Amino acid sequence: MIDLEAILKYEMTEIEAKAYKLCLLWQEIMDQELPDYHKNRLPKGDPRKSLIFKYCYKLARETQGLIPDSQYRLYILAQIQSLRLISDGTVHALIEPGCLVGDKAWRRWKIWKRKFDRKYEVLNPSVDIQTTQESAINELKRTRNFYIANFSEDYGKKEVEKIIRNKDIIKWVAFSKVSPFYLALSPLIKNHFNDIENSFSVDIEFYQKQITSEIQDIFVEMFPWDQ
């Protein structure tokens, strides 16, 4: 049964159809990466009754608007490869469909994707300084807008210190609401976290190397209370 037939036969909704395709993608990548590991395959009949569909459905909902459809193959590959690295040559117990969802999965993806992007940039050195600078400034603007949306137009140090103390800031970074550029520039973050890289699962040096004097000035302008 091809994809379209299953989707039509079981009258799947749009999000169910996406989840079903993610199930097939999971099976395909697992067969490539771990060919001798045959757990959690789709059963015959309605795929929505399976455990693998449950997690892929959750993945589709959690990442809607966060991951382009074209990157789900990379996302699944990132989870499998990241967990396999700590398996000492044997299949890691966590290489199950459940590894695709949750905060830890998102952090694994962000770390793996940054390494992937850096390797790509080395092989394809076409991104100029101006493009990087514009990207950093846009990310800082996005962070400021997120703070305004969650607090108020006149938010400041007090509000941000609160989400730092209760560790909500870690979640917001993991879900790309707060930019790693903010972490690299913020004195508040430096004061509260001794090890930013491990606390946020972010390659902080990668971002620090991209900070120019103009980016620093923009940060001061956007976050005058964070000095």
Descriptive notes:
This protein has 227 residues and is mostly helical. The chain has 2 domains: 3-123, no CATH class; 129-222. The chain has 13 helices and no strands. α2 packs across α4, α4 packs across α5 (103-123) and α6 runs parallel beside α13. The termini are far apart. The relative contact order is 0.08. The mean pLDDT is 83.
List the helices and strands and how they pair.
Layout: H1 3-9, H2 14-33, H3 51-62, H4 72-84, H5 103-123, H6 129-150, H7 157-165, H8 168-174, H9 180-185, H10 187-192, H11 196-200, H12 204-208, H13 213-222
Assign the structural class, choosing from mainly alpha, mainly beta, alpha/beta, alpha+beta, or little secondary structure. Answer: mainly alpha
Cα distance, first to last residue?
Answer: 60 Å
Kindly state the number of beta strands. 0
Question: Could you list the spans in which at least 5 consecutive residues all have pLDDT below 50?
Answer: none
User: What sort of overall outline do the alpha carbons produce when their principal axes are compared?
Assistant: elongated
Residue share in helix: 55-70%
Strand content: under 5%
Spell out the helices and strands N to C. Answer: HHHHHHHHHHHHH
User: Number of folding domains?
Assistant: 2
Biggest beta-sheet profile: none
Q: Rg, please? A: 20 Å
Q: How many helices in DSSP terms?
A: 13
| Mean pLDDT, all residues | 83
